[in-house]
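Hey,

Quick one before I head out. I ran the complex with zinc ion overnight. Inputs first:
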Amino acid sequence: MEKGLISVDRWGEQSQAYFLTHLHADHTKGLSSKWKKGPLFCSPISANIFPAKFPGFKLSLLRILETGSPHSISLISPTSGSKIGVQVTPIDAHHCPGAVMYLFRGDFGCMLYTGDFRWETANDRALLGKSMLLGALGGDEVDFLYIDNTYCNPSFSFPPREVAAQQVIDVIASHPDHDIVIAIDTLGKEDLLLHISRTFRTKIWVWPERLQIMHLLGFSNIFTTKTSLTRIRAVPRYSLTIENLEALNTIHPTIGIMPSGLPSAMKPIHRKDASVGSSPSLQHSSKVSRNGTDGKPISRKSFHSCIYSIPYSDHSCFNEIQEFVKLIKPSNITGIVSSSFCYVNPRHFFGHLCGSNQQSNKPLKKLKRSEITENDRIIQPESILGCDKLNEEKVRDKNTKIAILSIRRRRVSIIRQEGCGAKIAETNGICRSDFDAGIT
Ligand SMILES: [Zn+2]
């Protein structure tokens, strides 16, 4: 793709359109409340959470793309000045709320950018995501696959989240008198927390900013900021430390749960381990630390027994990445995570699965203008380069939908009358990107 057209999860470059896969901090570096380089495309859920993450952000820059629907965007070639048609389809990435992959198609070929993703294969949502992706591809090849390679190594093997969630339940159930602290990020693991809440019929404590996110996600009665209402607390990942657990245990027996696919945090969960992690061993160790009764320093390892690392991951394990590459059979593959301590170029493992073995000069299958179907949602250049007040109102108040829709209908007919470009979808199945952008 020509440089200067599209940026995905990169906010410092000059582009005509910016795409956000999801709102985790490592994908929003450079994005701020004052950022206003251009239109920012994202999923409806990300748009909903956006103001909480970036208060004061100019919401009229947001362009909301409905997941699973193809959208057509007109851009201008920085070199030739001619119009460039880009079709983009967001696909559920099954990572955290609002996370999507982007499938881009145009004269440059077919590009799939996964962002962070989990490719489970045995649940309804995963099957829906798969059919969404295959439907969007329509049998065409992916020329370039940019893939989440966080766990791109055969040593990363962990179960589906459903299985890991049961492990969390088992650990909590085996500590009926303990306080429980679970490490989470500012977004993600909501399904796990909901499962815990339902199983133990209890609210879950979260910190105030996280409560705001939960409310924006529609979970209003499950989470609380009152510690007196529950023994289960979800805390920021950075705060779950040995030192903090030790301090908590001086007040009340407490265990920590670290849901993660990271090997450094992984420890098999067996019944035997559960007893090792129970309060007596911690209290004993803590006592030694404070009183020094046996004269020996406490090894950090003894405190690790209070933290249960559960392989609950929002990223794909190695086998899932492999299945994904086998399914897509891209001509070229590139990892998007280059700073990982365990970085492995996905070509090392999957180069043989790629159609061209990475070196092909075969011509790209280009998406002709005529191939943009009438089901595509058309986004015109003026909406890319300009801002629309309606968009801001939409994000703030969903009740404006109807008014905006009627404006959109008028614009559809104006554009049809002008006979610009490809056909525009009828109001049936109107997508939010259209009226959010204030364009046809
Ligand atoms: Zn992420």
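Residues 401-418 form the longest helix (18 residues).

Talk tomorrow,
K.
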